[in-house]
Amino acid sequence: MTGKGMTRRGALRSGAGVIAAGALGAPMVHAQGTGGSLRVAFWDHWVPTGNDAMRALVKEWSEKNRVEVTLDFINTTGNQLQLAGAAQAQSKSGHDIISLAPWDVGTYASVLEPVDDVINRLIAKYGPINPVAEYLAKREGAWRGVPATSGTQNKPACVRFDLMQEHAGLDVRAMWPANGQAGPGADQWTWDTFLTAAEKCAKAGYPFGLPLGAFSDAVDWVGALFASYGASMMDEKGKPTVRNNPKLRTAIEYAVRLSKALPNDVWAWDDASNNRALISGRSALVFNPPSAWAVAKRDQPQVAEKCWTIPMPAGPEGRFLAYLPWTSGIWNFGRNKQTAKALLEFLGERSSAEALTSKTSGYDIPPFESMTDFKIWETEGPPVGTVYNYPLKPHHKAKPSIAFAPAPGEFAAQMYVQALNTKVIARVAQGGDSVDQALGWLERELSTIVRGG
Predict the structure, then answer these.
(1) What is the pTM of this model?
(2) Residue 169 and residue 359: Cα distance in Å, rounded?
(3) How far is CA 191 from its chain centroid?
(4) Contacts by 91-95 with C-beta closer than 8 Å and gap 24+?
(5) How many CA atoms lie within 13 A of 246 on its CB side?
(6) Which of 258, 253, 260, 274 shows the shortest CA–CA distance to 193?
(7) Pairing of strands 68-74, 138-139
């Protein structure tokens, strides 16, 4: 995800060069013709082959449509992409199209071109868009961006199946095989089962690698945990729902108990720490997209060949999957908005989405459920099928989740940045607060956000 250093890039790219904001080079993709020109700023992909796949697609489109495209990739280390977006929104100049982090669509809604026409045509072809993508990209009564495939990720469980079977007695490959069906024991994959497994693996010296700090990997998995308990902190009208909320209390108490089976320093982990735990062979489970497995395949193949991706556990309110989408926005002060829409519609096509996903070892998640059947998820390995259950499939019986929904976007974004879900857990598990004291603190924090303090 974005922000706060983005250290997953360091683990995955291993020193590969990037193009930073303010250091934009000559056009990478162009075509001579009379179709005008576009300047495009895309997220600089964690997976090195991701940028090449995007270049190829844009080149194909630009040559066919006789449009000259200046294509820049801006990394998120030090929030460079986000800073570029903020500067362009303020100056009303810059790129025509820009990649927007999950909450940035709401921030810049007033200067983003509505794209309902593009969205409606794509939906007519491919069916409904992921509801979390809609929650983030639909503002002020209109779609303010096109949900992107490139960079969009899920965060299911990546499990060391050998360690889980040896120490917790769970055969996760049998429970969640790579064949489109739930296997024996899948219905028992609950947070209660998860806690027992976490305690057994910790006792054996292979604790689950679950961050609990203020970085996005921590906020995301805890957000899905809370959703599975129905533990919302604020309703869709912006009213805090902390007081007399037994579901929220139960979720916090569960997380505190689970934290005791995790490494002592998870409160300080960043977005690369869980990757390192898996890759080093010290952890039996992490919640992560395939980036950690991909690095293990390169650097620790004996670890990678023992990994298997499965859905997140289910709670009393159902199974939820942490989902973090990117959105491509068009500035409404741009000069070639119709051409920009045409490019984004092309990138939203199934063939384009599959071309991107196939070049990133299955990392990129399209926004349409109808696109969860790409071959890459069946064939990628080792072991073959290891990321089959990475996209949310019908037999998972799960819903996509982003932390702090259904709160209004402007409030949820602040709750996310402040990591209120992990902090309320930390106040009990680390700070010595009672649950009542922690809930009181949380209610005060939410009230401050609502008041704009």
Answers:
(1) 0.91
(2) 35
(3) 21
(4) 92/331, 92/333, 93/333, 94/39, 94/41, 94/331, 95/39, 95/40, 95/41, 95/331
(5) 1
(6) 258
(7) unpaired
